[in-house]
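Chapter summary example: a protein plus 6CS.
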Amino acid sequence: MKHSYRYLTSTALIAASFFASNAYAETWKFALEEVKGSVQDAYAQEFKKRIESATDGDVTVEVYPYGTLGQSEDLTELTANGIIQFTNASPGIFGSFVPEMQVFSIPYLLSQDNEVNKKVLSSSPTIYDTLGGKLEQKNLKLLTMYPEGEMVWTTNREIRSPEDFDNFKMRVMASPMLVEAYKSFGADPTPLPYSEVYGALQLKMIDGQVNPVFAIEEMKFYEVSDYMIWAGQQQFTTTVITNNNWFNTLSAERQQQVEKVIAGMNDFIFDKQAEFNQARLEQIKQAKPEMQMIQLDNAERAAFKQASMTMRDKYVELTGKSGKAVLESLDQEFSQ
Ligand code: 6CS
């Protein structure tokens, strides 16, 4: 008894001195929807480096790659509940939180000029004020949004027109608007978690999937696909979000440090994703020289664009007046 009392006392003393010497030490958890070595990982590792240096080591960031804390939807839930502080959340994931965020699932919304995309995604009032305000009502704060590269179809047959998609099971992220997008293209959309895509392609439960090149390489989707097809329909975009209540409890100085670090990372991540996508395309070409790589021409792209116009009405049906206003402002911003 005496012994355990002494043990407890010394443990308490160690704990007390630990907290005294680390009075301001904080650990922030940052979860990813992607694996180590991905674009999201590059962003989180750079954020970690910059914020730990800006706070002189008072803050430590722990990065949790995809699979360590749950599926993509779980990460947004965990952030809203304050269990983790930061996560990537791709707009499709927000369907059940803020339906208007699914505007980014509408094909051909973004510009074909990536400099325009960079500017709009990092500073648009529609994104940060209108959509950001809606996220705050769900206790989520939108910190930034960035592109991860053009989404490319990997398929088991050649697709050049909406008719070619007839009877074609296309894996999409679990987002109602993405399901609609691929229906409009003529395919049979099949929502599946990211971790199940390789197996489903291998077992021929699906005929194709869509993702940026870096992801096709690191998830090895190219190994179980015959074609890579560029249709120019979409950039993969993602957000970094935090728990709004938690963020508001930080000191003004800490909040500014976070905002300054994030604002300083736009060029970094934009260049990084371009570099990753280029390098990984070369790796795929080397690993699988027989892969058929097809760039759809303007006329072929126009047919998909035309077919996807119904998506705009679907989006407005789903989101009402507020969604209509978001779509109109973004159309304007991306066409500058
Ligand atoms: O296809 C997906 O589900 C995933 N793709 C990427 C490139 N990032 C995260 C997302 O969940």
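Key point: Residues 310-334 form the longest helix (25 residues).
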